[in-house]
Amino acid sequence: MNKMSKCSMLTLAVLMSACQTIPSVAVADNASAAAEVKAADPAPAPAPAPATVAEPKAAAASPVAPPPPPVASSKEEPVSMITPMAERNATIRGTGYAVISTQNHRNPAQQRLMAIRASKLDAYRALTEQVYGQQLDATTTVAEMMITSDTFRTRVQGIIYGAVLESITPIGDDTYETTLSLDGRVVNDLRVLYLSQMASARRR
Predict the structure, then answer these.
(1) Which of 43, 48, 121, 128 has the most CB atoms around its CB within 10 Å?
(2) Is the distance from CB of 91 to CB of 183 less than 8 angstroms?
(3) Under 8 Å CB-to-CB from 200, ≥6 apart: which residues?
(4) Could you tell me how many helices (H) and strands (E) the chain has, helices first?
């Protein structure tokens, strides 16, 4: 009986010590396993720092020298005969004259009206000469080293439109003066129109 109780007591003591050592062994095994896993896994990469936007630095205010002014050429292009008149003169003027007493009418009032009309047509002729020029025919005859005949013939032909009547002025008691003006921008248009009409007339 005593032997049996001793044996059972020893068995219980062994079981109790075994029960106490099993949890410690399990805990040790768990700790070693966690250490192995920790050693196997690489360390987590550090989180990237938030990107910072670099603010543009204000440029230092440095005085900028202005560009030098363009140097005007001392030599100007000479005005030639083929330069359009609109580039040489903005406005051209023509003046015409007429005598009152030479008009073919008996009524003095009608003579004045006819003189005004004649002076206006003379002013148109002056404008036409400036726009188109005039055709000049000259004949000179020399005999025995002396001029026996000297003849000039002039002819003016052209179209004038857009002329502005500036003034009709009586000069003295027997003459009228009429002044017309023509914008230089119209001069080239008149020349082109005239040349096209001349070309079409030659084709016929």
Answers:
(1) 128
(2) yes
(3) none
(4) 4, 5
Retrieve residue 143's tokens.
Answer: 């005999």
pTM here is 0.52
Structure tokens at 102: 């030479």
Decide: 137 and 125 in contact? Cβ < 8 Å. Answer: no
CA distance 163 to 130: 13
Query: Which tokens is 42 given?
Result: 């690489």
* C-alpha distances in Å from residue 105, one per residue of 34, 110, 114, 117: 140, 7, 9, 14
The model's pLDDT over 92-133, given as tens digits with 9 standing for 90+, comes to 899 999 999 999 999 999 999 999 999 999 999 999 998 888
CA distances from 69 to 59, 66, 77 (A): 27, 9, 21
CA distances, 113 to each of 97, 164, 184 (Å): 13, 19, 30
Q: Can you tell me the distance from the alpha carbon of 113 to that of 116, in angstroms, rounded to the nearest whole number?
A: 5
Query: On the CB side of 108, how many CA atoms lie within 13 Å of its CA?
Result: 3
CA distance 166 to 182: 10
